[in-house]
Amino acid sequence: MADIVISQEAKIIDGKDIANKIKDELKEQISQYVAQGNRSPTLTAILVGSDPASQTYVKNKMIAAKYVGIVSNTIELPESTTQDELLNSIKKLNMDTGVDGILVQLPVPNHIDERTICNAVAPSKDVDGFNEVNVGRLALDMKTIVPATPLGVYELLRRTEISTFGKNVVVIGRSKNVGMPTAMLLHTDGNHESRGLDATVTICHRNTPPEQLKRHCKYADIIITAVGKPGLVQRDMVKPGACIIDIGITRVAAKEPGKTKLVGDVDFEEVRKVAGHITPVPGGVGPMTVAMLMSNTFMVAKILAKARQVNNCNGTN
């Protein structure tokens, strides 16, 4: 593993390139899997409402699924869908042996409780890793389905050979789907089932005073931010050679009238002058999230296929 490096300008961690390599690996593995007589893995996404960003996210996931050899389907429900109607749709997918992975695109409309919906997805088919059973297993350092974005961060660090053992890491953001599981993966024991990264982790959030956030960041070997607040991480908060992973994404006005652009939480142009490694936005963690969702889908497909084989041998349904 490479130590944190100090250079005149940070090395760009190309998440798009790494994600493409992962998808190519999955494509080959799934091709071999199907050639051995197994059916293709399947993924069903449920999209409630017509939020443009959610529609784009689901579309990108379906494109990636097709590329790697996963048969995908999207169930589109109107904004007016009740919670009970959505739960019924999930129940049908849970019972359908032809469906391997299930995801409900978040956020759901305000009249639907997100936690209830996440828990309704069968843990064995929960490719997002949001069911409380999978979250609990991650917290207990057990093998489980890890949420795709934290898993993408894990793979970025691993494949870029950024040293994490004993390093100081600051995670900015404590969301239950991104910040918390990212911190868990980083601090847990590499010898246990979750194959954690053995770092010393500090979690900062909206109630961390700015001067304390700066102090924590200046000691960090790795800063991972997932807040959605442009310009949150400035150059004077980063120690030379630190690795910066920017999960935040916000659409802001561009210089050209009427145009917009995507930015992260980090002042990229300034921070890259002092950091050792840095992810861009877009093109950093985003593509990795989609790639790891495909990886999770293939994983659950194989596990479910083995379970069906055992049940058939035992004469059960």
Structure description:
One of its GO terms (molecular function) is methylenetetrahydrofolate dehydrogenase (NADP+) activity. The protein has 317 residues and is of the alpha/beta class. The chain has two domains: 40-125, Leucine Dehydrogenase, chain A, domain 1 (Rossmann fold, 3-Layer(aba) Sandwich); 146-286, 3-Layer(aba) Sandwich (Rossmann fold), CATH 3.40.50. It has ten helices and eleven strands. It has helices spanning 15-35, 52-68, 83-95, 114-120, 132-139, 148-159, 179-187, 210-218, 268-271, 285-313, and strands at 11-12, 42-48, 71-77, 101-104, 168-172, 200-204, 222-225, 243-246, 250-253, 260-263, 277-278. Helix 2 (52-68) links the parallel strand 2 (42-48) and strand 3 (71-77). Helix 1 packs parallel to helix 10 (285-313) and helix 6 (148-159) packs across helix 10 (285-313). The chain starts with 10 loop residues before the first strand and ends with a helix.
Q: What are the key terms here?
A:
single chain, 317 residues, alpha/beta, Rossmann fold, 6-stranded parallel beta sheet, 3-stranded parallel beta sheet, globular, THF_DH/CycHdrlase
